[in-house]
Design brief:
Length: 697
């Protein structure tokens, strides 16, 4: 038998080794669509065990040598009989027979403190028992000593019958629960009948248990993360939690974020929070720099600002340009917002790193004597940057280029002499020819020669040049992988406000050019209509995400295959042109993404929400879970949905019964999402925050 403390059990290979030692085989994928999670089975079995007293004697038919087990019926207030599910004690042979009814496959998970190391809390895995007589073989696993059978949780392949070995002390017994769906349904109906008084009692009990025995560190961290991003939590509470746990500061709303950063005493935590801030105004940056107590903090802040192209005020820029630290001044020289006179001054800085950084952008404004000084500077790095700047105005010859290390940056940006261009065209170094192909100051003859280069990368770079006509671009032999991630071409973005340029470029043969056009916020109607039927799906997608003039018909088409991006999570459904009327006609559409649109129709009703909560498509159920009209019973039912996304969505619904929400707050795997629920009572939020911070919010 595999040692239960073996670290190999933390990975799939080790898990399968354990299965082999148990006489089991893994079957297919580990992902089981349509089957409720093992956590649901655990909750059902725990509730069943708690609702009846233990039997006083051995269960009928229990194998000799086994102690008494729990015999449990449906919870009080639930429908009785087989339709509501049945819980009972069973012998290992009887339990094995129920689990293996109709085949050799079943679901397996480990639970509790007796689970093999690394396997505790795992999801269901489909396994097969290849023994000639599978029922006795599975029954033997329930009695085995290694792994401890108290860690076993098994179920039929549809999850409707579940069984566990009694996790209590003493010899193991078995608890079997049948009809799990009916039991979940009955529990959901009971939860829907929860009165305000019953809900208040639930929260009183929750807070009493909280003060009696505090949760472990994992649960505390989950609550803190959820509450910081809970829109119902008062801002002082959210700020206090973020100060107590600095890694959560980025979850604060923008107006509270800077205040929390300034109040945070740990410089490292402040920097980490600033790095994750979506945007800061010039006044915010000014306050942050003035609050920076050390040279290292000023340097790190300046690095974040320069890397992110932050817009800083003149006063802040002046302070950074005059900072005592050379590395702070170096970052100041990189700032996009730094005024020219500061750049010029920094070219005379005593530190060579500062001079080298300031040189390139300051060069056009430098007087001749300052240019000569930089070209003859004692520091090689300064001389190198000065030469690069000089050759943007004076042609770089082959002799001068040969005196340096071959530099792709120089080839990309400098004004090149004819002799150097001929050398680069003739060289076998494709890297340098690719750099040459991006240089914006080439003559048409050179561009034409590069367009016929044998290297694919060279031709690809030429095809994206701004100085080509669309006829020239179409003549270049290039292959574009439509699945590759692409960005808007800067030269196309510069022409977004030019309707005629957009008409020409929208007809381009190159998909990256058309994608860049589609990124425009406004487009003439004929251009938007043309791009709406572009054969490149990414063009249609970018049009849906970026352009206010995207046609409604195209938005509906894109909706059928695009679920949203991080940059535009709601598009195309949140696009202003997305249709809102007449969507009820999609209520019975065979395509799940179209069906869910019916809920956006002003004529839709709560009955449709309830119907969609039981839809076969998890995406439709998730959309129902978001709807404020969702009936309470359906919300409770969705909390046990097989889909992770559906469960996470409904756990943020105000429609959840107090008992269910409190239960999910106690479970580490759902505590964060439950703590984000805006329906948490204000006094519960305050009490949790007080518990987590050790003081009032």
């Amino acid at each position: 038998m595999v040692d239960a403390s073996d670290d190999r059990l933390r990975d799939q290979e080790g898990y399968e080794a354990l299965l082999a030692a148990m006489g089991l085989e893994p079957v297919g994928t580990w992902w089981l669509p349509g089957v409720r999670k093992a956590a649901t089975a655990r909750r059902l079995l725990a509730a069943a065990a708690a609702e009846r007293e233990p039997a006083t004697g051995p269960a009928a038919g229990h194998a000799s040598g086994h102690a008494a087990v729990h015999a449990c019926g449906p919870p009080a207030g639930h429908a009785c009989g087989p339709a509501a599910g049945h819980a009972s004690a069973a012998s290992p042979e009887a339990a094995a027979g129920l689990v293996l009814a109709g085949g050799r496959e079943f679901l397996l998970a480990f639970e509790g403190p007796h689970s093999p190391r690394g396997c505790r809390g795992r999801a269901w895995h489909r396994v097969r028992i290849p023994a000639a007589d599978p029922v006795p073989a599975l029954a033997a696993l329930f009695r085995a000593a290694d792994p401890d059978p108290r860690g076993l949780l098994v179920a039929t392949t549809d999850g409707e019958t579940v069984a566990r070995v009694d996790p209590g002390p003493g010899a193991p017994g078995l608890l079997v629960l049948t009809g799990t769906s009916a039991r979940i349904e009955a529990a959901a109906r009971a939860g829907a009948r929860e009165s305000d008084e019953e809900g208040a009692a639930v929260w009183d009990g929750f807070l009493t248990s909280l003060s009696a025995a505090g949760p472990d560190a994992r649960l505390r961290g989950a609550w803190a993360e959820g509450l910081v991003s809970n829109p119902a939590a008062p801002e002082p509470v959210r700020r206090a939690l973020a100060l107590a746990e600095p890694s959560l500061m980025w979850l604060l709303p923008p107006d509270a974020l800077v205040e929390a950063v300034l109040a945070q005493p740990d410089p490292k935590a402040r920097i980490q929070a600033v790095e994750r801030m979506p945007s800061l105004g010039s006044d915010d940056w000014d306050r942050l720099f003035r609050a920076a107590a050390t040279e290292r903090e000023r340097w790190l802040l300046a690095t974040v600002a320069s890397d992110g192209g932050a817009v800083l005020g003149e006063r802040t820029c002046a302070l950074l340009a005059a900072d005592p630290s050379a590395r702070v001044r170096t970052e100041a020289a990189r700032l996009a917002a730094l005024a020219v006179h500061h750049r010029v001054a920094l070219t005379e800085d005593p530190d060579p790193g500062v001079r080298a950084t300031a040189c390139r952008r300051a060069w056009p404004a430098l007087p001749p004597e300052r240019r000569r000084a930089l070209l003859t500077d004692e520091a090689p790095s300064v001389r190198a940057r000065a030469r690069l700047a000089q050759y943007e105005e004076v042609p770089l010859s082959l002799a001068d280029f040969a005196g340096e290390e071959p530099d792709g940056e120089a080839v990309e940006t400098c004004l090149l002499g004819p002799d150097l261009v001929e050398h680069l065209l003739a060289t076998g170094d494709a890297r340098l020819r690719r750099a040459l192909a991006t240089n914006p100051r080439l003559d048409p003859r050179t561009v034409a020669r590069l367009a016929e280069d044998p290297d694919d990368g060279v031709r690809y770079a030429v095809a994206l040049r701004a100085d080509l006509t669309e006829e020239q671009r179409a003549a270049i032999r290039v292959d574009v992988d439509p699945s590759l991630r692409s960005y808007a071409l800067p030269w196309v973005v510069e022409r977004h406000e030019d309707p005629e340029a957009m008409r020409v470029l929208a007809a381009s043969s190159h998909p990256l050019v058309r994608r860049s056009v589609a990124r425009a916020r406004r487009l003439p109607p004929d251009v938007a209509e043309r791009l709406a039927w572009d054969p490149d799906r990414a063009v249609q997608l970018f049009l849906a995400e970026s352009c206010d003039d995207a046609p409604a018909e195209m938005l509906l088409r894109v909706w059928t295959w695009w679920t949203g991006s991080l940059s535009s999570p709601g598009r195309p459904r949140t696009h202003p042109n997305f249709p809102r009327e007449g969507l009820l006609r999609y209520a019975d559409d065979p395509h799940g993404r179209m069906r869910q649109l019916a809920l956006d129709d002003p004529e839709s009703c709560a009955a449709l929400v309830a119907r969609f909560a039981r839809d076969r498509d998890p995406e439709v159920r998730r959309r129902a879970a978001e709807d404020p009209r969702l009936p309470v019973a359906e919300a409770a039912l969705l909390a046990e949905d097989p889909s992770d996304g559906v469960r996470a969505t409904v756990l943020r619904s105000r429609r959840l019964p107090a008992r269910l929400l409190a239960d999910r707050l106690r479970a580490p795997d759902t505590a964060t999402t439950a703590a984000r629920n805006p329906g948490l009572p204000a006094h519960v939020i305050e009490a949790l925050a007080l518990h987590l911070t050790g003081g009032p919010g």
